[in-house]
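new request in #modeling-help
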Amino acid sequence: MGSVNRSFGCVGDRMNRPKKTNILLRSLALQLFLNYKTMQGPGYLFALKPDLTEPDENKVRAAASLINGHPVFSSIALGAIAARLRVPVDEAKAKEIAEWKRGLSTPLGAIGDSLIWERFKPALLAIVVATMIVAGQKADSVWGWCAFALLLIYNLTLWSFRSWGFSQGFKLGERVSELALHPALPVVRKALRVLGIVAAAFVLATAGANVLHLGQSAWLQFGIGFLFMLGAVFLRYSTLTVAFLTVLSSLGIAYLFSSTPLLP
Amino acid sequence: MWLAALAGTVVYLDTSVLGQTLLGQPIVACVLYGLLVDRPEIGLFFGVIFELLWLANLQIGAAKFSEGSIGALIATATAARVAPSVTSGEPAWIVLLLCTALGLIFSHLGRELAPVVRKLMNRIAEQFVDACARGESGSKWTLAALGTHVGAGFVFTLVGVMAGHFLLMLYFGQFYALGPGESVVQATDALCSSMWPGLIGAGSAAAVIQLVSRKDWVWAVLTGLLGAWVIA
């Protein structure tokens, strides 16, 4: 293992390097085979195929065994598995790798979901939506730039992370779970916390300003919608229920405030 | 209808299968579709509403999730088929209301799509692994997996858009594509437009719930309200 890890850092020894770009590109389809038995496992096999040059059933079974993590953070596990599959794997070793892989699911899922699904992605989307609301009539013309910036920032950031994660995973191999204690993690968490607050406040500000000029009934409808959604967190209502209750209440408020007869 | 189904397939693939690049998010996909059919304002409307409402809809692990992005696209595609009001030049609010309801229902129905596909994938994935273990490329099973996803996204969107077509036909008659009668628009616009503040309020709350820890809720809400006052 040691020689493999050293060779990855060595520029001259290209033969022992994993086909990183190829693997990372294929890892974009990590969820292609997502199923209830082995979750992303077969997706890992699909991604690692360029590195499994010789047919070896044990390596294939080890690569395809159960794992489920965040798709972006999975690049770390992919690097580590690629490193572990560089040495001969017998049946016992394949079982041990499968167990070790299963253990990686929790940190990969928990950290990845909390940073990317729960903060980074929705914060960027919320900022774009808020910009569209504040742009009002000019939204058509600014949308292109906003969408381009959104796709560029999100995908470049995540691709850079995938690349770094794969290299780190390959370097650490079996000890890859040590990355969960990386000193940068609390800093990133704090930065995303601030980004989340800014994005939410931006949405609230632009949406509030948008309905402010629509009059008293609009503010009431806005408030009802806001409270219904907040209440859904505690009452465990679905978004569908909240949306329909909001629409019905809004129509009711509009009817109460309206002086125009609805029927001829 | 076929274009919508094709767009829905792309949205489905990007949302949970390939890349997850955000191309399939309502605020991107709906406006792109709107531009394709020359109705960007419809795409923007549904993009904003559905993006906010489903901001807190996370696709975590094996959990079921609403197909908010496909729902948004179904709503956009259905509403874009109806001509704007002759008087105002804007989409009739009754159409937006009906299509919002349709999009919401299909988003929710979409919760059952992923479990069905994952169950089908149990066997396909097993066959793929077996093929690779035998030293084969497994490309046949890779295509089978891709085909299953493409089929799921395509059929689901097509059913949604067809349901929308019949819903609007029911309301406006078979010539609805020519635009609802002006009398219908005038009679219902004031009432139906009231859904906007309500839904945007619910969406703002979804942003707060998703992006802010409960201990920071007060600060985020106060900053937001202050910001609203400043912007207005």
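bot summary: The radius of gyration of chain A is 25 Å.
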